[in-house]
Amino acid sequence: MTQLYHSKIFANGTTTLPKPVRDALCIKTGDRVRYFISENGVRVIKIPSEKALADDPALREALDAAEEVMDENRMLLRKLK
Question: Does residue 1 surpass a pLDDT of 80?
């Protein structure tokens, strides 16, 4: 079901996200959002907190794998020098 909400932009550029939008994004006081601008419009997403990212096992696994690849590339670069 599509809903349309609006909010006012103040002189300093601030606005209040309507409560249904905050609820849909699970946004609480102090949370941060990111805006993606594309030819299709603008998307608003919640930025995960650093703690949430640190507790994400899939992200931790991906970061560990990336670190391994970076270490291997460093070794290869040293051999080429």
Answer: no
C-alpha distances (whole Å) from 51 to each of 24, 27, 29 are: 21, 15, 16
Cα–Cα distance measured from residue 33 to residue 15, given in angstroms and rounded to the nearest whole number: 13
The percent of residues above 70 in pLDDT, for the chain, comes to 93
pLDDT at res. 50: 67
Measure the CA–CA gap between 71 and 75, rounded to whole angstroms.
6
Predicted structure pTM score: 0.56
For tokens 């051999």, the residue is: 79
For 39-71, the DSSP string reads TTEEEEEEEPPHHHHHT-HHHHHHHHHHHHHHH
**Bridge partners, 41 (sequence order):** 38
> Is residue 53 pLDDT above 70, yes or no?
no
**Contact in structure between 65 and 73 (CB atoms under 8 Å):** no
